Amino acid sequence: MSSRILRISAVLFAMSLSITAGAQSDEMREAAGKYSRAMYLIDRLYLEKVDFKQLVDDALTAVMEDLDPHSAYITAEDARAMNEPLQGEFEGIGIEFAIIDDTLTVQATVAGGPSEKVGLHAGDKIVRVDTCSVAGVGLTIEDVHGYLRGEKGTKVGLSVLRHGVAELLDFTIVRDKIPVNSLDAAYEAADGVLYVKLSRFAARSDEEIREAVSAFGKPVKGMILDLRGNSGGYLPTAISIADEFLQKGDLIVYTEGRTVPAMRETASGRGMCLDVPLVVMIDENSASASEIVAGAVQDQDRGVIVGRRSFGKGLVQQALPLEDGSEIRLTIARYHTPSGRVIQSPYQNGDAEGYYEEFYARYLRGESFSQDSIHFPDSLKYKTLRLGRTVYGGGGIMPDVFVPQDTAAYSAYYASLLRQGLVMEFMNGLCDRHRAEWTAKYRNFDNFNDRFEITDRMIDSLVAFSGERGVASDQNGLERSREDLSMYMKALAASSIFSRDCFYRVMNAGSPEFHAALEALRDASLSLNALL
């Protein structure tokens, strides 16, 4: 962990201690005493026995709902589930899995993990865990986690059915720490261009990006950092990632709060990509830490922002643990981009519903389809720090290159298939049945990409499969969405047979945002070369 992250973590911890132990106002003491008295009276006098834990959970939930839209009370169970993807690891056996025909099926093993070490393979069907049968019993994802996750060093026995092997294979696996990667893809998108897809800002995301740069195997001539759909995560990680691209002393972000000390973070100048032409991709679901990185890159005129206006979450939450493992996530400050912009969209305390309705209203006003439908008042106008370009605050990051959302292939039928996960479920089964055949036929991704096609027979089978799951076929909708559906099916097959990178290699080939990013990167490279 970098010294910057350690320093920020120490500051936040000290702030939480000061909040807990600091002087209380008379108003707060009076309110706390009133609540304690009410709990005492309920305990002593109420007709029936009361679940005080639930009562306090409900009360804290209601209290936090009266604050801003992003402050929240998180139960102990939910806190563990929410923190795991950001902390970057869990303890288990290290497999990616799918439940196919009510059978737990291995999709892939985590490289270097305990399952790979004992020889578990993609396509293996787990029918028994220790003494419990897990095939044909209505298994859920939560059930699988309960069976396979556990404390490091504990053992679990698996009985596995493998294609081409008559008898069951028995494995004993010692659970270990399993990394949860936030880097979904890193591959060469064009000559010397590294494409990086980051799904969230987790504890190790900055390290994952540095590892991807180091593993590239050649000088990086340009980088596309894809933050579409990335809703944020750890603030220190966002600062560390921005630091990879900015010159020494460049301001990355600063925060201001009512009671917490202001914080200013500047670049160290030790990043791996200081002179690499850069494009950052964002969309309406990019938020928080994504907006910190995009805002710093834009305000410092360091790269080109491509896509659509981001969400607009510019509030800093601090997770403050409570005695039972639950926590409150309390907004303690606003963050500002280097030019001074506040990216937070307007809100009213206690009106989270109105806050999110306004976000959806953007779509209804046509913001996803036309840049001309987006209007900012002059009072929110700012200038970038090197070139003096006009940028706006008050609700998200507006990209330098706007790419409208492509809905030409949208149909209610395709949307139903996606919402219910039927395309993925169908492709999991199809890939499982053809894994050995396709692995032998397509020796590498390029060969697969050139030769593999989604046939009419596959689509007809998907339609029949979906009909059995309650989604009636719609020929007009199918024809309208056929091209996009076929591309998605091919991407899922590429991911299953090769790697997650390959999913994005297929999908990006048909993405207008991705092609706009490549074009913007070419322009950025020419501009940078002219300056050098």
Task: Walk me through this protein's architecture.
- α8 packs parallel to α9 (289-299), α12 (422-441) packs across α15 and α15 (475-497) runs antiparallel to α16.
- The strands form five sheets. Strands 3, 4, 5, 6, 7 and 8 form a six-stranded antiparallel β-sheet that branches.
- With 532 residues, the chain is α+β, with helices and mostly antiparallel strands.
- α9 links the parallel β15 (278-282) and β16.
- It has 17 helices and 21 strands.
- The chain has helices spanning 3-21, 26-45, 52-65, 76-87, 114-118, 141-148, 205-214, 235-243, 289-299, 352-364, 412-419, 422-441, 445-451, 456-468, 475-497, 500-509, 512-531, and strands at 72-74, 89-92, 95-100, 103-109, 125-129, 132-133, 155-161, 169-174, 176-179, 183-190, 193-198, 222-226, 251-256, 263-266, 278-282, 304-307, 315-321, 327-336, 381-383, 390-392, 401-402.
Offer a quick outline of the entry.
The protein is 42% helix and 20% strand.
- With helices defined by DSSP (H or I, 4 residues minimum), what is the helix count? 17
Please summarize the sheet with the most strands.
6 strands, antiparallel
Average pLDDT confidence is: 89
- Termini, distance in Å? 33 Å
Flag low-confidence runs.
Answer: 5-21, 528-532
Total strands? 21
- Overall 3D geometry? globular
Strand content: 15-25%
The rounded Rg comes to 26 Å
Q: What fraction, in percent, of the residue positions are helical?
A: 40-55%
